[in-house]
UniProtKB/TrEMBL annotation:
Reactions performed catalytically: Hydrolysis of terminal non-reducing alpha-L-rhamnose residues in alpha-L-rhamnosides
An MF annotation (GO) of this entry: alpha-L-rhamnosidase activity
Alpha-L-rhamnosidase concanavalin-like domain boundaries: 318-428
Tree of life domain: Bacteria
Protein name per its UniProtKB record: alpha-L-rhamnosidase
Lineage, uppermost ranks: Bacteria, Bacillati, Actinomycetota, Actinomycetes, Micrococcales
InterPro entries: 6-hairpin_glycosidase_sf, 6hp_glycosidase-like_sf, Alpha_rhamnosid, Bac_rhamnosid6H, Bac_rhamnosid_C, Bac_rhamnosid_N, Ig-like_fold, Rhamnosid_concanavalin
Alpha-L-rhamnosidase six-hairpin glycosidase domain residues: 434-799
Annotated EC: 3.2.1.40
Native organism: Pseudarthrobacter defluvii
Residues in Alpha-L-rhamnosidase C-terminal domain copies: 803-849
Domain Bacterial alpha-L-rhamnosidase N-terminal: 142-308
């Protein structure tokens, strides 16, 4: 019997340690049903909703007995669905999902914050890991045991020599001043009656290690600390073992660990604590109890970080200098696992990089940031680990307290020849579920899709990052550009909610959204630009665009509600800036402002389009006073337009009307200021034309002129794109939507620089920050792993394969299926696991002689397009095929035939089954 599947609590597939007392539940209706008419939830704690007449399958608030710390229940759901003939049938009960709460109150903690006494703290990047150990006795075998742990730093927990859980980089990255995640673990299987040893290893991590472009250290504090509490239930009652002054602190084999610099391990210092079941380490001393708060502690909102994949080397090359260069064939984020450690006492160095220099060895030169403390100089790129073997058999090096972005590792100081089985690359990332796929008949486009996915896999560790090596930072602009693409391919709901919580926490008093979240605020960073560049159009607007996209993906309006206040404060900053400031150049031209100027945002720092191909090196200091009004005002329009729609969703009718009016005024101001009498964009660039069309900045009658201008600029550039960060995602869609589909495909298939396929042809395995990240001479420039330009693959999903949501649909309730074939592509297929179930679209074009074509009356010479679509329960799809009237279909499998350039009045619906 069918049953609902994919049960979720707070959008999470596993819910241990939640700290919300009314978790919202959801499920996916069974395939093969047309719509849900009612549901019933029952739970192990007696909660029973009874039959609820409702089509809702997500966002169902828990309404059972009050939940408190440690509360646990298993819930199941069954639904009633209407079948093909309209009759109602019940489903079976779903598999159960367990929800368990963590510790909700400060008073739940008997544990104390502890740390190591550090009479002298080594320089940042040189700081060792500490072990905290406690041996205790359990009077009886446990029947339930939980560990709750967090840290100021990065911790790993071991019980009786076995690692607790498979999460990495715990407690994860958040804005620590306001939010610190606590992990809850089921540790029953690790404990025994009698003597047990719990041990934690603690390093600097994001809390006090170096981090980001400027390599600042100590951003959240100068002392690391651990908080852990074990709660064990047995026949002897409940026993709690919490961190306190009775724990012992000792040195570890980690002689230094830093997220940017790398990790050094000397296995001769290994005290056995992670593998011995009992005993205290030599040189151990009592831990120091630190004052530490409990208010920032919280459970998970996002899935945890794990090693989700391992890659074997594709080649190992020994260079004349003895270095062995391992190529994993793929740019990846994480670390290596190395089991060939060399002679006892000898040190092996691992240098990680994305590119090779002319000597065939790893180069990190292109990843070195400017040193703002010494203008003209550069900082070290970091990413170097060392390991010293002890000679004990079975030693494995896996630096779990740092991460790197790399395709290659130069292994130095190892006399033995490395074999492929000796080393692998571990992908470390938030364990996001894949929910979308795409492929088509063109191998290079499939490769492009693949490298874009990899860039996201590599930049989704804890927060959406700009790049996994040089900065690893949660840049707002990058995520607002890429979330529509990411949300199609992966479930990024919890991941985005977690990040938005930091974005809100990091918002400035005046409404400015910090460029990077999590971040401790500009006062904690040394580089001047880290302060004045905040508040840029296209970056700050992430507070509006990201919740909006997460809402569209899920239909969960609470994501909008959570961020509404922060959106308003951001808009307040933009609006005040626009209304009270005029750009100096404008003021010099005319002392009195024209009426429309109150709607122009043309002052303050703006990144502008950022990284246009062939453009000058970005000058942040010049951008401080430059007039970027044409970009910033466009975002002012876009943000007010989205906020008007958001207000409508939230039921704020008055605000919606006011925002729509403001948005219309900004739009008119943009048109007045930035279009000339002939209707051309005055600051002619592809980016500005794209925005004019994408953000609806020009009157309908002027769109054709701007489209022609954009097409002209593209042709003038030899049919090459000329866009940078902000407008690249919109480039092909606006062409396709404005009658230039063929030109969109010409750009997509262009393979000379700048283009996406030039990256593919030059061997990219991830998307580059610069269009010429590897230039024609083969030299690497800047990061080779920035996903933003990869947002183009949304075009493949939405236009090539032809699956998108209807304009005002959220949660994939109403679909539009409209394949827009081009570029000699003969087939495409895409799938998306939406909140209501799996959506699949596939089409092929077969020649006029193929059987499908023969069956198709009047089969034209250019073949027949066969489209199949699977539509989940509770969903409708409008099917638009070339030259045919729209057809609306509901749940089920459908097959259509059409002529790619046909002119019949109806799509031929061949088959439909539920
Ligand atoms: C770079 C980052 C990021 C971008 C900013 C403006 O340093 O890598 O991608 O958003 O600059």
């Amino acid at each position: 019997m069918t049953a609902p599947t994919r049960l979720r609590a707070e959008h999470l597939p596993a819910a241990l340690g939640l700290t919300v007392t009314t978790p919202r539940l959801g499920w996916t209706p069974p395939a093969g049903t047309s719509s849900q008419t009612a549901y019933r939830i029952t739970a192990s704690n007696g909660w029973d909703t009874g039959r609820q007449e409702s089509a809702a399958c997500s966002g169902i608030p828990y309404t059972g007995p009050a939940l408190d710390s440690r509360s646990r229940f298993e819930w199941r759901v069954r639904t009633w669905n209407s079948g093909e003939d309209g009759t109602e049938t019940p489903t079976g009960w779903s598999q159960p999902m367990t929800v368990e709460l963590g510790l909700l109150h400060a008073t739940d903690w008997t544990a104390q914050w502890i740390g190591a006494d550090e009479p002298e703290i080594p320089a940042a990047g040189e700081r060792p890991g500490y072990a905290f150990t406690k041996t205790f006795t359990l009077d009886a075998a446990p029947h339930k045991a939980r560990a709750y742990a967090t840290a100021h730093g990065i911790y790993e927990l071991f019980i009786n020599g076995r690692r607790v859980g498979d999460q990495q980089l715990t407690p994860g990255s958040t804005s620590y001043n306001t939010t610190l995640q606590v992990q809850a673990y089921d540790v029953m299987d690790l404990l025994v009656e009698g003597s047990n040893t719990v041990r934690a290893v603690l390093t600097d991590g994001w809390y006090r290690g170096t981090f980001g472009y400027a390599r600042d250290a100590g951003m959240y504090g100068t002392r690391t600390a651990l908080l852990a509490q074990l709660e064990v239930e047995s026949a002897a009652g409940r026993q709690t073992i919490g961190t306190d002054g009775s724990w012992l602190v000792s040195a570890t084999e980690i002689t230094s660990a830093d997220l940017m610099a790398g990790e050094r391990v000397d296995f001769r210092m290994h005290d056995g604590g992670s593998t011995l079941s009992a005993g205290t380490a030599p040189g151990a001393r009592p831990a120091v109890v630190r004052p530490g708060g409990f208010t920032a502690l919280t459970g998970p909102l996002a899935p945890p970080t794990r090693v989700t994949r391992e890659l074997a080397p594709v080649s190992i090359t020994r260079l004349p200098n003895g270095h062995q260069v391992v190529d994993f064939g793929q740019n990846i984020h994480g670390w290596v696992r190395l089991s060939q450690l060399g002679a006892p006492g000898g040190t092996v160095t691992l240098e990680y990089g994305e590119a090779l220099g002319p000597d065939g060895d790893v180069t990190r030169d292109h990843l070195r940031p400017h040193n703002f403390r010494a203008p003209g100089a550069f900082l070290d790129a970091g990413q170097v680990d060392t390991v010293t073997a002890s000679g004990a058999p079975g030693g494995v090096f896996e630096p779990r307290h740092t991460t790197h972005g790399f395709q290659y590792v130069s292994v130095q100081g190892l006399a033995t020849g490395l074999q492929p089985a000796d080393i692998s690359a571990c992908l470390v990332r938030t364990d996001l579920e894949r929910i979308g796929t795409f492929s088509c008949s063109d191998a290079r486009l499939n490769k492009l899709h693949d490298i874009v996915e990899w860039s996201f896999l590599d930049n989704s560790c804890e927060v959406p990052t700009d790049c996994p090596q040089r900065e690893k930072a949660g840049w707002t602009g990058d995520w607002q550009l890429f979330i529509p693409t990411a949300a199609y391919l992966f479930d990024v709901t919890g991941f985005s909610r977690k990040w938005l919580r930091d974005v809100r926490a990091d918002q400035w008093e005046n409404g400015v959204i910090a460029n990077i979240s999590p971040s401790p605020g500009p006062a904690a960073t040394s580089a001047e630009f880290m302060a004045f560049t905040n508040g840029s159009a296209g970056w700050g607007d992430a507070i509006v665009i990201v919740p909006w996209e997460a809402y569209l993906a899920t239909g969960d309006a609470s994501i909008l509600a959570e961020n509404w206040d922060a959106m308003q404060r951001w808009l307040g900053f933009v609006r005040t800036t626009a209304e009270t400031q005029r750009h100096a150049a404008r003021a010099a031209q005319a002392p009195l402002p024209a009426a429309h100027e109150q709607y122009l945002w043309d002052t303050g720092f703006n990144f502008g389009e950022w990284m246009e191909p062939g453009g000058p090196e970005p000058d942040l200091f010049a951008a401080r006073t430059a007039d970027n009004g044409i970009v910033a005002t466009a975002y002012y329009r876009h943000t007010t337009d989205l906020m008007a729609r958001i207000a409508r969703v939230l039921g704020f009718a008055g605000e919606a009307a006011a925002l729509a009016e403001l948005s219309a005024n900004v739009r008119n101001a943009w048109e007045t200021e930035y279009l000339d009498a002939a209707g051309q964009v005055t600051r002619a660039s592809q980016a500005n034309c794209v925005r004019a069309l994408a953000f609806d900045l020009v009157s309908p009658e002027r769109r054709a002129t701007v489209t022609a201008q954009l097409a002209g600029l593209i042709r003038d550039a030899g049919t090459h794109l000329g866009t940078g960060f902000l407008s690249t995602p919109y480039l092909l869609p606006v062409l396709a939507d404005n009658g230039e589909l063929d030109l969109a495909y010409e750009l997509l298939m262009q393979d000379s620089e700048p283009s996406w396929l030039a990256m593919v042809d030059r061997g990219a395995t991830t998307v580059w920050e610069l269009w010429n990240g590897i230039d024609a001479r083969g030299t690497a420039r800047q990061s080779l792993n920035h996903y933003s330009k990869g947002a183009v693959v949304s075009f493949l999903h939405r236009y090539t394969a032809g699956l998108r949501q209807a304009h005002d649909s959220a949660g994939w309730e109403r679909l539009v299926i409209e394949p827009r074939p081009g570029a000699s592509i003969t087939s495409a297929t895409t799938s998306h696991q939406g909140p209501r179930g799996l959506i699949e679209v596939a089409w092929t074009i077969s020649a006029g002689t193929a059987p499908e074509a023969a069956a198709f009356e009047g089969a034209p010479d250019d073949g027949v397009l066969t489209l199949t679509a699977m539509i989940p329960a509770g969903t409708t799809a409008e099917v638009l095929l070339p030259g045919r009237a729209a057809a609306v279909v509901g749940p089920g499998h459908h097959t259509f035939l059409a002529a790619p350039g046909g002119d019949s009045s109806q799509p031929e619906l061949m088959r439909s089954t539920l």
